[in-house]
Amino acid sequence: MGSLKVIIFQYVRDIWRRRWYAVGVAWAICLMGWVVVSRMPDIYESNARVYMNADEALTPLLRGLAVESDVDARLERMQRTLLSSTNMKKLIRMTDLDSRVKDTADREAMVARLQKAIVIKLQTRNLFTVTYSDTDPQLAQSVVSNVLSLFMESSAGDSRTDIDSAQRFLQTEIDRLETQLREAERKKSEFQTRYYDLLPNADNGGSRLEQARGDVQKITEDLNDSIAERDSLQKQLDAQQQYDTVEKPSAAPSGTEGLSTAPQTRLAQLKTQLETAKSTLTDQHPVVIALKHQIAAVEAEISKTAVEKKAGPTAQNIANPVYLEMARQLSEKETKIASLRRRLVSAEEDRDKIEDEARRAPSVGAEYLNLDRDYEVVKKNYTELLARRESAQIAENADKKGDKIDIKTIDTPEVPTLPSSPNRPLFLSMVLIAGLGAGVGVAFVLSQIDSSYSTTTALQALGLPILGSISVINSFDRRPRYWFLSAKAFAAACVMLVVIYGGLLLVFVGLHHKGA
After folding, report:
1. For the domain bounded by 44-83+118-173+389-411, which CATH number is listed?
2. Which among 214, 208, 185, 211 has a CA at the least distance from the CA of 196?
3. Does the pTM of the predicted model rise above 0.70?
4. DSSP string, 271-340
5. Which of 10, 18, 19, 1 is nearest to 455 (CA)?
6. Rounded mean pLDDT of 437-462?
7. Least confident among 83-97, 104-118, 148-162, 284-298
């Protein structure tokens, strides 16, 4: 510990011996530094605070109706593109910066400088500041103000440009899909016309072939049921008596002639049914033969009744009404059976024709499914694009009549009255410290490069024998008065340096307060 104190004391004494070198260096550095600091130009800073957020009223109303853009991504993109080269060139033309530009190289350099000098800093998610510094306070304020104008224009035009681009793309795709849709509709229509009988029906989903097969099956079932009913009626008719015998009154009272009108009416009905049956059946058809037998029976009955009236018998045979009714039903069944057989023949011919066509074109169903699938895909895409175009139109109208992003300038840019930099008091202090440090450093370096020895300890470190040392030299230069004057002059030089520093500090601080 004692040796450390000795070394430190030795360094201090060596520096003290070269104190005037230290003072000279400190003065030189401080004077040059303070001149440089005093000549540094004043930099004025102008800033503004802007708040951006989604429109709290319009955005919820348009949700689900219009194209919803990502507002956060849009804000980030606007902030990123605000300092683009295009905007910076526009800013140069809008401000006095244009007067500083002489050629294209100067303009490009100015654009690069502005991109670095204009600072956009986010304070919160939706709040940010725009700052610009320049030696001209008016220009600083003008740059910030015009940057805000560019930002407003960008916010208004950004979404509209995107929507216009999207609408152009949608319209191009819609036109393309419309052409494809028309072509798909034409192919599908032609295919349906060509293979109408083999394709599913739009009403019930079944094909004409399936319908024809179903018709044949249904007519066959109806024919079998009608034949069974006819056979049942025939058995019942065979079990019935054709005539009933009743006692004839001795004298017919007035008005009894009307009793003979029943066979006449029945005969007229049977003849009408026979004419109807002959229009659709041959003479050998069982129905026609049965009707002829019935007509003959009724005619015989009428003849017999007429004979009995002339002979005046006491009893007469009349037609059984149940028999006649069953005969009528049997005749109707025979007519229905004949009609069903004709329909069955026609239905079977249609079925056979369609089946033959189906055998000749086995891949119709698969081809139709492919055509229908392509048609439905194109139609679905076309419908969706139409809906999206309508959404884009609503979004465009919303942007024209009310912006979905709310932008408010909280702090407008003002012309600064005080320079924001340089911080001259700080620089003056740094120059003073640097000067003093450099002076001490120079004195220390000089002491280190000095090859003389001022103590016996330093000589002993070399390993040389020491015979003795001179402790005091009485000379004129080492008198106490000289030491006193030297120390006083050194102190005066240091104090004067500090006084100059303090004076400069007061001057610049006073100017700052005066500007405020």
Report:
1. 3.30.70.1130
2. 208
3. no
4. HHHHHHHHTTS-TTSHHHHHHHHHHHHHHHHHHHHHHHHHH--SEEEEE-HHHHHHHHHHHHHHHHHHHH
5. 10
6. 74
7. 148-162
